DNA sequence: GCGACAG
DNA sequence: ATCTTGTCGC
């Protein structure tokens, strides 16, 4: 029988992961490196990517990794890749990248082989960038490994460096009047680790944007906001929707069990039309 | 014992 | 992450 639970990591594994994070962290660039980032309208930006993993209920190891590429500024899906994967690392706050990044790197490699012309100019990642225990979240990790500009977008605040969901924080959230309003997340260290963003008018709960790689916080926030039709920026939202739908249609056994039927365990498609 | 815990 | 349907509003 296949393992349905990931093994708890040994202390030695954690130390190794921390060393790896520290090593890769030296390569992070927290500044704009692309021309389009410097333009107030992002002229020259045509493709924005989004990545996400959805998990099969009741099974800690089977998931669907998805990478989508959307046109900008239209936000139409140009490319979609869904791949069933078996994760080996457990979820641990602070070490999310070791659970998800390997499959996202593979997805990026498949894109490069199949449709190099659709390579995204920036990638929105589900999770944090430098807003992290050791300043190296999943968005930084993926950014360094792919050398793509990456932005971290978290749905919940990771409470590091003194940041907390205290009354002060709640008050700042209440003060966000409309879509586009933000407030900085300044840690005890004095450093601004990210921005809380009211992503659109109808949502009261903000999203947390932080630098992943090859971008500054200001342009990262500006780009994320320009990608929001709903609370979650469209590239990540599409990756999420498609990975969940992929699981639903591929493992729809009545009792929630995993029944790998005879079918493709991967799809990728390119949407014709806009070029 | 209590709180924290990106996905 | 996932557990989960209908319901209120535009």
TrEMBL record:
<keyword id="KW-0479">Metal-binding</keyword>
<feature type="region of interest" description="Disordered">
    <location>
        <begin position="251"/>
        <end position="275"/>
    </location>
</feature>
<dbReference type="GO" id="GO:0010494">
    <property type="term" value="C:cytoplasmic stress granule"/>
</dbReference>
<keyword id="KW-0963">Cytoplasm</keyword>
<comment type="function">
    <text>Endoribonuclease that specifically cleaves inosine-containing RNAs: cleaves RNA at the second phosphodiester bond 3' to inosine. Active against both single-stranded and double-stranded RNAs. Has strong preference for single-stranded RNAs (ssRNAs) toward double-stranded RNAs (dsRNAs). Cleaves mRNAs and tRNAs containing inosine. Also able to cleave structure-specific dsRNA substrates containing the specific sites 5'-IIUI-3' and 5'-UIUU-3'.</text>
</comment>
<dbReference type="GO" id="GO:0016891">
    <property type="term" value="F:RNA endonuclease activity producing 5'-phosphomonoesters, hydrolytic mechanism"/>
</dbReference>
<dbReference type="GO" id="GO:0003677">
    <property type="term" value="F:DNA binding"/>
</dbReference>
<keyword id="KW-0540">Nuclease</keyword>
<keyword id="KW-0238">DNA-binding</keyword>
<keyword id="KW-0255">Endonuclease</keyword>
<dbReference type="GO" id="GO:0005730">
    <property type="term" value="C:nucleolus"/>
</dbReference>
<keyword id="KW-0378">Hydrolase</keyword>
<keyword id="KW-0694">RNA-binding</keyword>
<dbReference type="GO" id="GO:0046872">
    <property type="term" value="F:metal ion binding"/>
</dbReference>
<keyword id="KW-0460">Magnesium</keyword>
<feature type="compositionally biased region" description="Low complexity">
    <location>
        <begin position="251"/>
        <end position="263"/>
    </location>
</feature>
<dbReference type="GO" id="GO:0006281">
    <property type="term" value="P:DNA repair"/>
</dbReference>
<dbReference type="InterPro" id="IPR007581">
    <property type="entry name" value="Endonuclease-V"/>
</dbReference>
<keyword id="KW-0539">Nucleus</keyword>
<comment type="similarity">
    <text>Belongs to the endonuclease V family.</text>
</comment>
<dbReference type="GO" id="GO:0003727">
    <property type="term" value="F:single-stranded RNA binding"/>
</dbReference>
<dbReference type="Pfam" id="PF04493">
    <property type="entry name" value="Endonuclease_5"/>
</dbReference>
<comment type="subunit">
    <text>Monomer. Interacts with PABPC1; the interaction is RNA-dependent and stimulates ENDOV activity.</text>
</comment>
<protein>
    <recommendedName>
        <fullName>Endonuclease V</fullName>
    </recommendedName>
</protein>
């Amino acid at each position: 029988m296949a393992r349905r639970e990931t093994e708890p990591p040994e202390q030695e594994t954690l130390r190794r992961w921390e060393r790896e994070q520290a090593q890769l962290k030296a390569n992070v660039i927290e500044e704009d490196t692309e021309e389009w980032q410097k333009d107030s309208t992002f002229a020259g930006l045509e493709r924005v990517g989004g990545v996400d993993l959805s998990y099969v209920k009741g099974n800690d190891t089977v998931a669907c990794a998805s990478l989508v590429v959307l046109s900008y500024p239209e936000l139409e899906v140009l490319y979609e890749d869904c791949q069933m994967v078996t994760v080996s690392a457990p979820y641990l706050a602070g070490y999310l990248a070791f659970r998800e990044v390997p499959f996202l790197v593979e997805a990026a490699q498949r894109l490069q082989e199949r449709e190099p012309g659709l390579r995204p100019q920036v990638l929105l990642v589900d999770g944090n960038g430098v807003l992290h225990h050791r300043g190296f979240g999943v968005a930084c990790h993926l950014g360094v490994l792919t050398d793509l500009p990456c932005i971290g977008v978290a749905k919940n605040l990771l409470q590091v460096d003194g940041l907390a969901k205290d009354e002060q924080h709640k008050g700042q959230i209440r003060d966000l009047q409309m879509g586009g309003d933000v407030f900085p997340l300044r840690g005890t260290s004095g450093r601004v680790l990210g921005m809380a963003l009211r992503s659109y008018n109808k949502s009261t709960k903000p999203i947390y944007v932080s630098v992943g790689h090859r971008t500054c916080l200001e342009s990262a926030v500006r780009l994320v906001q320009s990608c929001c039709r709903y609370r979650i920026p469209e590239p990540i939202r599409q990756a999420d929707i498609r990975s969940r739908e992929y699981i639903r249609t591929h493992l729809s056994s009545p009792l929630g069990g995993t029944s790998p039927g005879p079918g493709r365990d991967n799809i990728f498609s390119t949407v014709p039309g806009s070029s």
